[in-house]
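To the wet lab folks,

You asked to see what we're planning to order before we commit. Fair enough. Below is the target structure as tokens, and below that is the sequence we designed to fit it. If anything looks off to you, flag it before the synthesis order goes out.
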């Protein structure tokens, strides 16, 4: 199993924060100690991360330092991720935004309005994350989200929403405000930078409908990256061979008119108001050129050529049993012709759910929205470190799905941790899956077959409980 995210807290903290540069050796060491505390006592408040009061006070002081910016704190981790992205293979850059909200009676410096922009008590920011994972080409037809190797965070941005619009806001002012939010995607492209020159390495940006922005897709192509974006707009299509520009159709209608290449069954996860279910879908593909918008070339510049894409439609047939049949319209830069190729694009899009799980883990597992820090700078510093911690357990979950039958010793726990976990639960731990289920059971997961693998909360609690038992064992045995 990968050692990219070793589970031993001290070893992990040194790997991902040991090379941090905050302008002072003591501050650098403090960052590692805080990361170790977060890793060994995941989801605990700052006062509960440390046994010594001096360490708690030092952590609060650390988060207030101007040097403790999210970018500087995550630099060693991101450098590890970039190094891994240079290896041969296909890598998915999973991208999504999530709102982090604190309800407070007073304005908190460094936070913006969230939800209802007119509400004075809902403050926070939008966190835009690009999570890098290594993709494994599917060996057989599958409807489940395929496991991936989690590398970590390639990019993050904290965005403060603009003040509530006034009644006198003009259309131009509204568009300017909305463009600032949609520019999260294009700014991420600029920071991520140029993709690999090596033809054996491919980076694919995988995004939901928020990224259906022409300037985003053009920017990704210009940087030598690929993309899989769920279409939000029924864009016009262009005939590139015509002497004059003519609209020859639209994205949705063209994809729906294409003959199916094949079908498969998708296991859909449960969501708010929707139960988990299996959906039998048909897959079709059409190759096309997206019509360039007048603004695509920039003010005063000539209009550009259309963007060449493959439109992969994944759709469920309407029936009385399903209120909202599934339909994905996926835009990709790749030349897709066969069912196998289209099926892989759909599976890559399904992998995007992992970045949603990442944000969920930050909130429910690590308790980011429970933080009681009274300044936006402190919150951002803390959450930037929490974000790296979240990738650690996310990687463990994915590795357990990819290699469930590997020996328990390759799960990332130390020999002592495995020994204690086995004794506490009075069960043998032979495989990685045994370890995951044991950690989940320690955290409250019932381990029934119908329950599936443990979720975030159970794994966090299980890891924390294990550390308590290990500390007690070491104290009693003198080790």
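Sequence we intend to order:
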């Amino acid at each position: 199993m990968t050692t990219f995210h070793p589970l031993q807290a001290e070893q992990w903290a040194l790997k991902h924060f040991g090379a941090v540069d905050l302008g002072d050796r003591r501050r650098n060491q403090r960052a590692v100690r805080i990361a170790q505390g977060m890793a060994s006592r995941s989801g605990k408040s700052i006062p509960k991360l440390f046994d010594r009061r001096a360490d708690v006070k030092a952590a609060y002081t650390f988060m207030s330092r101007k040097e403790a910016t999210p970018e500087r704190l995550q630099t060693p981790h991101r450098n590890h991720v970039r190094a891994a992205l240079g290896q041969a293979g296909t890598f998915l850059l999973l991208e999504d935004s999530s709102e982090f909200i604190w309800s407070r009676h007073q304005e908190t410096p460094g936070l913006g309005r969230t939800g209802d922009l007119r509400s004075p008590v809902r403050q926070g920011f939008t966190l835009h994350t690009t999570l890098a994972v290594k993709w494994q080409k599917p060996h057989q037809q599958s409807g489940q989200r395929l496991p991936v190797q989690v590398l970590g965070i390639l990019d993050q941005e904290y965005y403060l929403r603009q003040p509530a619009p006034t009644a006198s806001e003009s259309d131009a002012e509204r568009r300017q405000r909305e463009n600032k939010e949609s520019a999260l995607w294009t700014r991420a492209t600029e920071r991520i930078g140029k993709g690999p020159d090596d033809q054996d390495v491919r980076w694919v940006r995988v995004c939901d409908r928020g990224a259906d922005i022409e300037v985003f897709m053009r920017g990704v192509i210009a940087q030598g990256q690929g993309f899989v974006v769920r279409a939000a707009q029924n864009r016009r299509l262009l005939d590139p061979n015509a002497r004059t520009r003519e609209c020859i159709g639209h994205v949705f209608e063209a994809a729906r008119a294409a003959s199916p290449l094949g079908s498969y069954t998708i296991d859909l996860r449960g969501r708010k108001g929707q139960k988990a279910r299996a959906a039998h879908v048909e897959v079709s593909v059409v190759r096309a050129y997206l019509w360039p918008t007048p603004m695509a070339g920039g003010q005063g510049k000539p209009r550009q050529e259309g963007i060449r894409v493959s439109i992969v439609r994944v759709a469920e047939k309407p029936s009385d049993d399903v209120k909202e049949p599934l339909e994905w319209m996926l835009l990709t830069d790749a030349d897709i012709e066969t069912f196998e190729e289209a099926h892989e694009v759909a599976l890559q899009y399904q992998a995007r759910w992992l970045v949603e799980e990442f944000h969920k883990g930050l909130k429910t597992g690590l308790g980011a929205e429970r933080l009681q820090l009274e300044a936006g700078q402190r919150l951002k510093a803390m959450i930037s470190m929490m974000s790296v911690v979240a990738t650690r357990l996310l990687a463990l979950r994915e590795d357990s799905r990819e290699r469930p039958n590997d020996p328990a010793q390759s799960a990332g726990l130390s020999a002592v941790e495995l020994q204690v976990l086995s004794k506490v639960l009075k069960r043998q731990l032979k495989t990685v899956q045994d370890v995951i289920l044991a950690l989940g059971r320690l955290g409250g997961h019932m381990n029934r077959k119908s329950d599936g693998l443990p979720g975030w909360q159970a794994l966090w609690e299980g890891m924390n409980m294990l550390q308590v038992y290990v500390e007690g064992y070491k104290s009693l045995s003198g080790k």
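Structural context that might help your review: The chain has two domains: 71-358, 403-479. Residues 63 and 382 are 7 Å apart (CA to CA).

Thanks,
Computational group
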